[in-house]
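Section 5: illustrative case.
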């Protein structure tokens, strides 16, 4: 089940609905660290005069899908609160930043 982090209907924007969702119950393993995938997307206008909604229609049914990698620091370090998100700024869709991390990736708090 996905929860909206952001959602804008096309009528409130330039015709295209946009949004970002995540599933707080579902983590993936990134080199031993629990992480969440945050999915950003847009829905193009239905036609030249009909804006789309910002509803998430699934990865395969949305456009411009990009996935960033969100770490809850409280699940990794003792006495640390907050989140850190790694994402890609790119014109290309289908990017999953969580897949970029190699076995050399590590985190620490100083």
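Designed sequence:
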């Amino acid at each position: 089940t996905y929860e909206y982090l952001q959602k804008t209907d096309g009528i409130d924007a330039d015709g295209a609905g946009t949004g970002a969702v995540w599933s707080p119950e579902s983590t993936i393993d990134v080199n031993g660290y629990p992480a969440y995938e945050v999915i950003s997307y847009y829905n193009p206008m239905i036609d030249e005069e009909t804006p789309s909604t910002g509803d998430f229609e699934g990865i395969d049914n949305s456009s411009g899908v990009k996935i960033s990698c969100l770490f809850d620091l409280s699940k990794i370090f003792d006495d640390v609160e907050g989140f850190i998100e790694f994402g890609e700024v790119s014109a290309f869709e289908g990017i999953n930043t969580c897949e970029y991390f190699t076995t050399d990736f590590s985190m620490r708090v100083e």
